[in-house]
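Weekly structure sync, notes
Attendees: PL (lead), two postdocs, one rotation student
Agenda item 3: pending single-chain targets
PL asked that the sequence for the first pending target be pasted directly into the notes so everyone works from the same version. It is reproduced below exactly as submitted, 268 residues in total.
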Amino acid sequence: MDSLPGPHQTILENINKVDDFISEIVRAHQESLDPSCPRDFIDAFIIKMQQEKGNTHSQFTVESLTRSTLDLFLAGTGTTSTTLRYGLLILQKYPEIEEKIHKEIDSVVGRDRSPCMADRSQLPYTDAVVHEIQRFIDFLPLNLPHAVTKDTMLRDYFIPKDTMVFPLLSPILQDCKEFPNPEKFDPGHFLNANGTFRRSDYFMPFSTGKRICAGEGLARMEIFLFLTTILQNFSLKPVKDRKDIDISPVVTTLANMPQDYEVSFIPR
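Predicted structure, written out during the meeting:
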C-alpha cells in the first residue's frame, strides 16, 4: 500500500504527521520529567520504561508509547466529535428534549460555573439523553475487527485460531426487549419510572471485554461535559423546518455518520 498511488496516500501522510506530533510531545516529556511527580500517561509510561531499561523483552518502548498515545488520542476524539455533531442534530429535531435539559442544568448547575463530572449523578435526564444519543446513532455497527487467539468453540461453531471476527454491536444496542421501540430516539430507555437514571448492560457503544475501546473513559467525559456546557450557554436553532431535519445516518464502510447540517447557537 505504501507504493501504490491513490487517495490512501493522503491518509498515510497524515498518520506520519500525527506520529511526528506525538513524538515531539514525548521528547518534551522526557526532557522535563520528574519521576516523583508524573503529570500524565506519557510520564507514567516513561518511568516504566526506565524501570525496565535492562529488560530486552520489555514492551515499554518509545515506539509502543507513541502508538499507545495515538490510540488513546484517536479513540477519545473521533467518537467524541462525531457523537456531539450527531447529538446536536438530534436535539434540533426534538426541541422538547432540549428544553428539559436546559431546565435540569439550570436547576442543578446554574449559570455561574461550568458543569463538571460530579454533576452527572444530579443530572439524570441529561445523562439519559447522552446515553440515548450513543445508543441511537450506533456509531460502529460492525465494531472493529478482532481475531481469536486460539481455536474456539462458540455455541457449537468451531472458530479456528487467528480467524478475524466482527462482534456486532447493533443487535445489542437495538435489542427490542431491553429498549422498546429501539428505532425511536427516547431518553426514557435510560430512565426509571421515578425519573432516576437506569443503567443497562446492553449499553456498549465502546464494545466490551479486554479489547474495549481504550479511550472510553475520556470520550464519555468529553461528550457529557461538552454537551452540557454547550446547552448551559446556548439554545439550538435549526436553519430549516424541524420536520425536515433528517437524523438517519450516512452509512459508511465502518461508521454511521450524521447528515451535513447547519445550526445557529443562540445565547441563553
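Discussion points:
- Strands lie at 146-147, 152-154, 157-159, 164-165, 234-238, 250-251, 256-257, 263-267.
- The radius of gyration is 22 Å.
Action: rotation student to compare against the earlier draft before next sync.
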